[in-house]
Amino acid sequence: MPQGKLTNKVAIITGSAQGMGKAIAEMFVREGADVVVSDINGKKAQLVAESIDAMCIKMDVTNAKDVEIMVKKVVERFGAIDILVNNAGIMYPTRIDDLTKEEWDRVLDVNLNGTFLCTKVVLGIMKAKKYGRIVNISSSAGRSVSTLGGAHYTASKAAILGFTRAVAKEAAPLGITVNAVCPGLIDTEMVRQECSAERINTYETSFPIPRMGTPEEVAKLVLFLVADAPYITGASIDINGGDLMI
Ligand SMILES: NC(=O)c1ccc[n+]([C@@H]2O[C@H](COP(=O)([O-])OP(=O)(O)OC[C@H]3O[C@@H](n4cnc5c(N)ncnc54)[C@H](O)[C@@H]3O)[C@@H](O)[C@H]2O)c1
DSSP secondary structure string, the chain? Predict the structure, then answer.
């Protein structure tokens, strides 16, 4: 088999049972990586893992024990972790007047605390090898304000950007890069669930590139960051069809 860009690399992608995470997992396998499909939805994750010959782990990124067990299992099976993509995320459109503390906490817990927990435990493994690539999936919401999500979603995605910079600075001397990707409107289940086709069309025609992005386009950017970008760290990279230019 020809060498891929990720041959001999071990990659965990959280939230990879569908959407962008799934596209990233599929692309990484095509590039030769040993991939771990991890998701709170075990059944869907299993189907994806089987279809691409990847390892499957059902886990909740907000549960510290789940994260530890996942990392232990991956190291037992592959001996290392080279790449972590913190992709698991949830979004609700609730406006501030109706936003409960419970919903606020849940969104911050999955999107931000989950990213923290996975990063912390995986960094411990990467340090030993003095090599690692971490990509955090933020959003245009983190750079500006969310199109669909409420204040909790925007706050969580903005916090991921600060977290990315801080950890990038600490991890750089250890050979580990940490970057964030900020997608605009991408055609996934998350968007289709929240938005009617008519509303999607209205958004699309307002973008300089008048369509949604595809999960594969985001996967290509993530692949670039983990395979071809040793001098990029602490960056927040936009992929949004020109919807947001800053
Ligand atoms: N689709 C977009 O337009 C868009 C834009 C910007 C950013 N994002 C971000 O990209 C990431 C992927 O989004 P998507 O559109 O593919 O979403 P999606 O809803 O299609 O997929 C998200 C996956 O995360 C999993 N997940 C949710 N909570 C989890 C938890 N606690 N532990 C483990 N897994 C969990 C879900 O089961 C699902 O499989 C998210 O972080 C999202 O916020 C999406």
Answer: ----TTTT-EEEEET-SSHHHHHHHHHHHHTT-EEEEEES-HHHHHHHHHHHT-EEEE--TT-HHHHHHHHHHHHHHHS---EEEE---------GGG--HHHHHHHHIIIIIHHHHHHHHHHHHHHHHT-EEEEEE--HHHHS--SSS-HHHHHHHHHHHHHHHHHHHHHGGGTEEEEEEEE-SB-SHHHHHHS-HHHHHHHHHHSSS-SPBPHHHHHHHHHHHHHS-TT--S-EEEESTTSS--
